[in-house]
Amino acid sequence: MSQAELPFLLNRPDRWKAGVIFASPHSGCRYPDWFLRNTRLPVHALRSSEDAFVDRLIECAPDFGAVSLCSLVPRCIVDLNRGTDEIDPLVVRGVPRHPLNQRTLAGLGVIPRVVSQGRAIHERPIDRAEAERRIETCWQPYHQALAALISEARKRFGRAILIDMHSMPHDALAHLQGPRPDMVLGNRHGLSASARVSDAVCAAVESQGWRIRRNSPFSGAYICAAYGRPSQNVHVVQLEIDRSLYMDEKTITPRPDFDDFAARMRCVIRDLSRLDADEQDAIAAE
Q1: Which among 26, 131, 23, 30 is positioned nearest to 84, based on CA atoms?
Q2: For 111, which of 82, 117, 245, 260 is 20 to 30 Å away at the CA?
Q3: How does pLDDT run across 153-186, given as a tens digit for each residue?
């Protein structure tokens, strides 16, 4: 499969410095005609489930010696932050009604049933073969690439650090008491990343004047659970950004000061891309 055919965009630096990967599994916005013909929603409504423009926020990662991996496939077609067993029988025909987790019950399984505000994506349930095709052609290639990067980082640097980048609706934090955080770090309460790596992410965010909260209301989903293994030097942190900081959520367009926000995020990415880089350089020289 050529790069033009891949369902993701992988950008590598000239020299990978410290085994850090920035990924965006939900910023894909290529809506194929076959999908649009079989959905009840207009594209603008479908896009409400995207982490729109997060790919643009992390595209600078190779400038600082880190890797970036961004899905090109919209989340409403297949959700890369779900397991292949998180299949909703209300959206896929012929799937056993086994016990479902809360995400899948809410219509947010690997083949989503709804976008924001509970709006149904499909006119009718899809065939199981169609669900399997989406998983085979979109989900599997992305996760094969991600697993390969993590394995390569461990071999080259002795560890891998994945910063899994997401965005959250501003209203998702409306129920919180006190000042709302600008970002939420999820590490599954310490199960997917060490305190040291998590602290470094918080410090980089706070250095730009943003407030960050840990594990509430988002502690990390499938990618954190599947890949985060701090005891094996694989650290996965999910970072959720309040969308209202950089985009107009109603029109799904960048705010006029998007470039200013991106410049501050560039500083965060710079700091995290060089995490322990001097130590890694010393190891490489031995």
Answers
A1: 131
A2: 245
A3: 999 999 999 999 999 999 998 888 888 999 999 9
Answer yes or no: is pLDDT of 19 > 60.
yes
Q: Tell me: pLDDT of 225 over 60.
A: yes
Residue 120 pairs in a beta bridge with 114
Please give the Cα distance from 185 to 165 (Å, whole number).
10
Q: Where is pLDDT greater, at 4 or 196?
A: 196
Helix residue ranges, H only, 60-139: 102-105, 128-134
* pTM higher than 0.85: yes
Residue type, 202: C
Q: How far apart are CA 56 and CA 124, in angstroms?
A: 34
Is the distance from CB of 230 to CB of 192 less than 8 angstroms?
Answer: yes
Inter-residue contact 269 to 200 (CB < 8 Å): no
Q: Which residues lie below 8 Å from residue 225, measured CB to CB, with a gap of 6+?
A: 188, 191, 192
Tokens of 36: 């649009």
Do 46 and 76 touch, CB atoms closer than 8 A? yes
**Is 160 in contact with 21 (CB distance < 8 Å)?**
yes
Sequence length of the chain is 286
